[in-house]
Amino acid sequence: MSTELLLFTCVLGVFFIALIIFVIFGQVSVRKLRKNPKTKDELGIEFVSGWDILNVAGALAMPRWLNRKLRNTPLSNLYADADILDKHTNTFDRILATLFYWMFVSAILAIVSLTILSNFDVFD
């Protein structure tokens, strides 16, 4: 088995686990936030179905200073409001969001990196 295939298999495994956590986070945490009248309008814009799950996970996982900076831009409606979501979620929700978000982002970055390295024949 080549190094490239081994790395790609590991990254796809992490990505698959992240997608399972995505579904769990959506069913457990975001569903609760959608039903709450105080938070249903604070989940950010949903471009496609499930995008609000990614918005909420990003808001709960990113550092607060970055989220506050994003909320002060002209495109602030695109992002979920972490301060309000923080009041209406418990520790389990925040841990699940952080776990999902960073696994998802790191897997995507690793796939892009592996693709670029493969195109430059680094693994040959």
List keywords for this structure.
124 residues, mainly alpha
Structural topology:
Elements: H1 3-35, H2 51-61, H3 64-71, H4 82-87, H5 91-119
Describe this structure in words.
70% of the residues lie in helices and 0% in strands. It is mostly helical and 124 residues long. The chain has one domain (3-119). The longest helix has 33 residues, at 3-35. 26% of the residues are buried.
What would a concise description of this structure say?
The protein is an all-alpha fold and 124 residues long.
Number of helices in the DSSP assignment: 5
Helix-strand string: HHHHH
The average pLDDT is: 91
Rg, Å, rounded: 17 Å
Q: Output the structural class.
A: mainly alpha
